[in-house]
Amino acid sequence: MERSKWLTMVIILSLFVLSAGRGFKAHRKYDLPRYNHTLARILVEYSSAVYISDLTELFTWTCSRCNGLTKGFEMIELIVDVEHCLQAFVGVAKDLNAIVIAFRGTQENSIQNWIADLYWKQLDCNYPDVSDAMVHHGFYSAYHNTTVRPGIISSVNSAKKLYGDLQIMVTGHSMGGAMAAFCGLDLTVNFGMQNVKVMTFGQPRIGNAAFSSYFSQIVPNTIRVTNEHDMVPHLPPYYYHFPQKTYHHFPREVWLYHIGFGSLVYTVEKVCDGSGEDPTCSRSVSGNSILDHLKYFGVQMGCDDVVRCRILMDPRLTAYSTQDQSGNFIMSKSRSNPIIKTNVENVESGVSSNVL
């Protein structure tokens, strides 16, 4: 067993050696987005909150992760795809004057296996209607081929009817970041929605250079935040000698790293160039840390328990969800239904949740 572990480590290190080096810089025909530190600190809390497995607390926005910079957020719909272990929500942040969409990433108990799979993953899906563009099939399917996408689209339309034509902010961490990127592109291309912003944390690569260039033109207001030696943004590996065929990040990256010593350590937020593969940002270090993947801006990312796809929910809230034959469901909070509002308020007052 030990020999097998050492062999795996040697192969992984070899892949990083092959993927190291400078990448080419794509030609830009768009303005790079401006990085907003305050917005990043807010959206990272939404990306953390979506991991909560107690759906009562999440739906009523009373969870421990729902009481910081996101306080006052109004949930519209909570989408849970039990079949594929996916979770997302749509709501309105009045302080941002925006509809916020957040996607859950990979759960902690399965992240090691997920990372191992990404080392070997090859581009295997042609992106529709874009010549030579290829994407990661798993990430693409997680958004496009599950109950998540129709739930998100329906929720956004509901939010617009209630609050008007607000800007849309899409966020997520890890695999949730990959889904957020596909969502931002989908809303813009297929539904003609304007003013879509995407900000992800610890996102893996999701497509090749052709896709990266296309994405950057369609959703230019996109920021990818990476942290120190977080290994996930290094995956799937980028191979310098095959720039057109390998995975390639889209811009714009903001790399968080620490400088100083002892009590004088502070965080630098380096705004990277427009290549998507700036060799002076996260690519300047080895991506060898899972711990750096699980905390951004001091906010804990990942699930609050180790049970895969565990669901906690007050039984009374099941009356306000629609469920399909596979057990996937969407919970909707209707402002116009006083019965729903009363029951939700009763749950907020302290009724405990049950495991489903």
From TrEMBL:
SUPFAM superfamilies: alpha/beta-Hydrolases
Pfam families: Lipase_3
Region forming the signal peptide: 1-21
Record keywords, A-Z: Hydrolase, Signal
Superkingdom of the source species: Eukaryota
CDD domains: Lipase_3
Gene Ontology molecular-function annotations: hydrolase activity
PANTHER family for the chain: ALPHA/BETA-HYDROLASES SUPERFAMILY PROTEIN, FUNGAL LIPASE-LIKE DOMAIN-CONTAINING PROTEIN
Listed name of the protein: Fungal lipase-type domain-containing protein
Provenance organism: Daucus carota subsp. sativus
